[in-house]
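Model: Ready when you are.
Researcher: Fold this.
Model:
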Amino acid sequence: MAGLLNLVRGFGCSNTRVCLSKSSVVAQLHTKSKFENVTDRKRSSISVQELIVKRAVLEFRHHMIVNLDVGLPPFRVPNHLNLTFLQLGNEVVQNPDHHQQLTLLAPLQVSQHGDVAHGEAGMVLQRRANNRVIALMEHTREDGSPKILKSCDLQITAVSCVDMIITEKCVFRVDKENGLELIELAKQTDMLEIMECTGCEFVVNENLLVNRNFVGEKLLCLLILHCLQWIFVAVLL
């Protein structure tokens, strides 16, 4: 039993007792994966998300432990269900430990100094020296208004936590004091478009990568896309 307690972890809490159920209960998922049965209206949005993910792949390193946001990956499809790696919300188990080296977020808004408006369902963000936080987001809302702002309009859920912003149009490096620095432009995107759809000022890196195709190595791309669709679990023994 003592060994079992060591495997149970939570945010800021310790476990002294585990109660085992006398009856077996099989969890059932009724939520469909967002990658299934999408309408034509949403297909363009999914392609944008895949473009962002392919760029995010370039930040991965071998043996790196990555913490994914709520919904990344999405709900599992029942045909590929593994109840061993699901938590109470019927989502994939994530690793809350301090050993993680990279955190991927899907925030609603990000400010020029790295503040995040993440909504009510946002993950618990803890700044650590060895943990980089990258925001993966579409550059604008559906109405064309910017999601990268001078200051967040929505309630801030974490202050100065983002180190990099990756959108379908470009990549920003976030300086907590000086603001945003544009370091990459996606293919078929120009500077004028970035200025029009970004809600704050930014500086341009002197070594700006222009017309970059946001695609990493084929093997890593397949790995992260599979991860976002099905399961990504980091287990520490």
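Researcher: Now this one.
Model:
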Amino acid sequence: MSKNGTKKLFSMRTLFEWQIYHRICDLHFSIMETINSIDWDKKCQTIAQPLGYSLTLMVFLLRLLQDNILKPNYINIYRSKDIFDLKKSYTFRKYPYLMTLIQDTQTELIKSNKWYNNILGYIDKLSTLLLILLLMLNAIITWLTLFRSNCSYQFYSTDITSKTDNIIIRPLTDLSDINYDPQTNISVFKLLRLYLLNLFKDIEDLPSTVTNSDNKFYYQLNKWKPSKFLLTLFCTFSPISTISFYFTEVTLVTLFPVLFQQIIINYVIFYRYETKLVNEKTIHQSMIQEMENKIIKPKMSKEVQDAKTDVRGNTKKCFAQFFPATTVVRNQIFTSHDIDGNISIQKFDEDTNSFKKINNNILSSRNIVIP
């Protein structure tokens, strides 16, 4: 084959591999986009709860099968070769008719039990494999719920006085670090390390007592925030029930305490604690709305009128121009932090509907004449 033919074949092979690779990537992207576009929290009652109860019931049935059917037949399934063979007895070999009787009896017994023991052997291997997969799935769900459902919040202009182990004080220089990501830096090991360090400190010396007057650091709150779908799946497919099924001898009576436990967990978490969170949210919203209606709006809704007057003295003609009255006086200058942690002063431009950075040395004023 010539060099041109080899190059052409190589280019066609490369093009074919490139097309397959991009089709796989497009398929993966389409699948992930479809999964992420689904509102899983609305499918707790239709998917998560039945799925969790089905997995728990499957673990119960597998353990019930192992303890009541497979375990009593372990000797016949796996240890039939270790049973003493009467044909090897030297005494029985002296009597040929006894050897014939023993051989016929063992042959019929082996034929009648061989298929049954083989089926039980396959069922035992399949049940063990399914049980291992269910235990691994339960461990993954537990790990995702307890240790991978954290959400990070940063506070730059607030002095937090609450004493909690989930608050971390970080310098503003961390924001300029390219490799620093507050989402990926959250781990259970860091939270455990902070908790162990705080055990040896006095409660008055916790980092939350530091004041942020110099704006040299900020607070980071790592909040445990699992999704409703994942929490429902965790509660219905509880690791407590799975472990108790695995380490205890399962009978039909074992199902009743597990059902009672699931009813209690379902009632406490979904009907009590979730309702408590909704009630607290309603109370906070009503308090904010009441404060806005009684305090903020009356102070900010004073009718004012902007006036442009002539400030030149000793003139016979005075100049004055009045603008339409406004209902709210708004401060359009905002102070924030940029990515590097530096203080940035910005002003909102109503013409472009965007923020514009202004110089710190420029002082602006707005004169309002109230008649």
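Researcher: Key takeaway?
Model: The longest strand covers residues 217-224.
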